[in-house]
Amino acid sequence: TKGGIHMWKRFVAIGDSFTEGIGDEVEGIVLKSWVDHFVQLCVHDIEYANFAKRGLVTKEIRSQQLEKALTFKPDLVSLIAGANDVLKGRWNHQAYKNDMEFMIDKLSKTEADIVIANLPDFTVRLPFASEKKQVIKEQLLEVNDVIC
Questions:
Q1: What whole-number distance in Å separates Cα of residue 134 and Cα of residue 103?
Q2: Is 55 helix (H, G, I), strand (E, B) or coil?
Q3: Which residues of the chain are under the pLDDT cut of 50?
Q4: DSSP helix/strand/coil, 140
Q5: pTM of the model
Q6: Domains, the chain, ranges and CATH?
Q7: Each residue of 1-43: pLDDT tens digit?
Q8: For residue 79, which of 139, 30, 8, 18 has the smallest C-alpha distance?
Q9: Which letter, b or e, does each residue of 32-70 get, where b requires 16 or more Cβ atoms within 10 Å of its Cβ?
C-alpha cells in the first residue's frame, strides 16, 4: 500500500473474448482489451498476463487457463466467464457453478484479490428470435446469480 492505494505487482486475466479484447471496431479507436486499458491507467508498473481466449466455455477456461494463472503468482486476478456457455447453447447451471466455485477457491488460496463480474444482457445487441432471447435472458440471470 502506498498513500492508501493498493499497489498490485502481478495481474493475470482469464476468461473469454470479453477479456481477450475482441469486439466491435470503432474507427479511430484501437481495439484493446479492458485489461490493457486497466494496466495503462495504473499509477505504477504492473506485470500482467492476459490468458483469455475467444470462444471458450467455462470448463475450457478452467482446464486451459487456471494453472497458467496460478503459475504466474498474481496478486490480482480477473475471472470473467460464462458468455459462451450461454451463447453456444451449452448452458448447464450446475457445471458452471462447480467450475466457477472451483476456480475461485483455487485463486483465493493465492491470497490474490479476485475480480469477477456479471455478464451483460447480450439480447439487447444480438439479433435473436423472441423465444431464443427469453431463454438466453433466463440463462444470463442464472449465470449472474452464481456470480453474486
A1: 29
A2: coil
A3: 1, 3
A4: helix
A5: 0.87
A6: 10-118 (3.40.50.1110)
A7: 454 556 899 999 999 988 888 765 667 766 778 888 888 888 7
A8: 18
A9: ebbbeebbeeeeeebebbbbbbeebbbbbbbeebbeebb
